[in-house]
Design brief:
Elements lengths: L10 H6 L10 H8 L13 H12 L7 H5 L3 H4 L9 E6 L10 H19 L8 H7 L3 H14 L4 E6 L2
Parallel strand pairs: 1-2
Helix pairs in contact: 6-7, 6-8
Length: 166
C-alpha cells in the first residue's frame, strides 16, 4: 500500500519513494494553451504547493537530467510539451514574511533578496560570473529583481516565477 504524502511537497521524493500521487500533469498542456498568469486559489491542504513543485520540476532546466526518473509514469512524461525543462525558475515562498505591520515591509524585502541570491547561486553556471555578487550588492528587492531580469534576458533565457504562500 502506498503512503499518503501528508505535508510533503517535494515531487521527486513523493514519486521516487512510492507515495500516493494523483497525476495532474495532464493539465500542464492546458496551462500552456491558456498562457498568461495562473493563480491557484484553494483551501489549505488542497495541493497548491505540490502543484507548484510539479511545475517547477517540469519546467526548470536544472532538473532536465532527472525528468525521466520523475515523470516516466505520469501523463506528461509520456507526451511532454516543447517547454519542458526550458526555464530558469524563480521560486518564491512568502510564508516566512513577518506579518507584523511594523516589520512586514522589511521582512518582505529580506525574503525577496534571499530568494534572488539563491536563484543566482542555483544558476551560477548559466548566469554571468558576477551574478551572485550583483545580487549581494542590492539592498532593495525591486532593484535586485530588475537586475536579475536583465541578466536572464542578456543570456537569452526565460524565467518562470512561481509564488507559493502569498
Amino acid at each position: 500500500m502506498k503512503k499518503i504524502p501528508y505535508g510533503r511537497t517535494d515531487l521527486e521524493t513523493i514519486i521516487c519513494e512510492g507515495y500516493y500521487y494523483v497525476d495532474k500533469t495532464r493539465f500542464i498542456r492546458n496551462l500552456e494553451e491558456e498562457g498568461g498568469y495562473v493563480i491557484f486559489l484553494r483551501p489549505r491542504r488542497y495541493g497548491k504547493s505540490i502543484t507548484i513543485a510539479m511545475l517547477q520540476y517540469y519546467y526548470d532546466l536544472r532538473f532536465a537530467d532527472r525528468f525521466d526518473k520523475i515523470f516516466h509514469d505520469l501523463d506528461i512524461g509520456k507526451n511532454p510539451t516543447e517547454k519542458r525543462s526550458s526555464y530558469l525558475v524563480l521560486s518564491l515562498n512568502f510564508s516566512a514574511v513577518d506579518p507584523d505591520k511594523d516589520r512586514v515591509e522589511e521582512s518582505f524585502n529580506t525574503n525577496l533578496l534571499f530568494a534572488f541570491k539563491s536563484f543566482a547561486y542555483a544558476y551560477r553556471n548559466i548566469l554571468p560570473e558576477d551574478a551572485e555578487a550583483k545580487m549581494e550588492a542590492h539592498t532593495k528587492s525591486n532593484d535586485a529583481f530588475k537586475a536579475l531580469c536583465d541578466m536572464v534576458t542578456k543570456i537569452g533565457r526565460k524565467m518562470y516565477v512561481m509564488i507559493d504562500e502569498y
